[in-house]
Amino acid sequence: MLPISVCMIAKNESKRIERCLSSLMPYGFEIVVADTGSSDNTMEIARRFTDKVFTFDWCDDFSAARNFSISKASFDWIFMIDCDEYIKTVDIEEFIYFMEHLSHAAGSVNRENVSGTSDTLDYYTDRTERLFNRNLYYYTGIIHEQLTPVSGGNMECFLLNTVLGHDGYVMTDEERERKSQRNLSLLLKQLEKEPDNPYVYYQLGKGFEMTGDYEKSCQYYEKGLSFPLDTSLAYVQAMVVANGFNLLRMGKAGQALAVCRCFCDDFANSADFLYLMGLIYRDNRLYEEALGEFAKAVTFEFANENGANSFLAYYEMGNILVLAEDYDLARQCYLQCGDYAPAQEILKLYENQ
Known about the structure:
The protein is α/β, with parallel strands linked by helices. The protein folds into two domains: about 170 residues, Spore Coat Polysaccharide Biosynthesis Protein SpsA, Chain A (Alpha-Beta Complex); about 180 residues, Serine Threonine Protein Phosphatase 5, Tetratricopeptide repeat, CATH 1.25.40. The chain is about 45% helix and about 20% strand. It contains 14 helices and ten strands. The strands form two sheets. The protein has an eight-stranded mixed sheet with strand order 3-2-1-4-7-6-10-5. The longest helix has 21 residues. It is globular.
């Protein structure tokens, strides 16, 4: 058996947990499941895959549940996964090398996310810390919990060639509302204890964004951005980008420009931020600057938002070039959009002319 314990917490996950556990079976991991109060057959399904299934008395604290699952592992090396996730690709040799040579650090993985409703799906990618030594790291925060060094200080992370699929946010509007209200309730409780924690403000901003309350979302994002921040942290960049998009949604392009422009040096290597700045310049009618940002965005291999470094940026470039009456170059941009439907519709008009 590979000396890694895969740990997860579960509650009423009978629709998803089998897919998750099945994806783990080929790799020889120990599997630890901490059930937090299921009323369906989640535990019965889990026991088909592992004999390490435990009950945790739910106390409105996700970190407590995760740390409990970690305490039940046989090995010090932990890989954390959720029931609505599953292994798409994993490099076991890289895991072994990481454990032998980078044991002080945490290993991050790429996560390919699907969200929205069954009728309208959105796709994006993020990176999340999942492989670590439990003697060095544990979880903090009652919701949207963070991996935290036991000794304090900063956490060093390395990206692994492992990819998770995640579709836990594909749900009905009613399910989304219930989940949002639960999350917001827990986050507001955490804010009472940690009023100076910018990460909590970031998560509250995400929570209100999920409900469609962009005004309140921006209030929390901007409060989070008011603290001294380490812009190398992924959540800080995510907060800046999300705040900028929400301001654009509310028609506040001028405010978006004022807030986001000061981060241009910090996030010059982020396709997501460059794409956002292109939209901000576009909505402020600074078209030359917008073209420059979109052109830089497409030079990057990775973007969290699907298309920010490819078809979405090319599409916006095409639209600006049409305004400039440079139709030939605009057509070339639309051709770069692949099967992106709005671009295909415009190309059909070119063909009919």
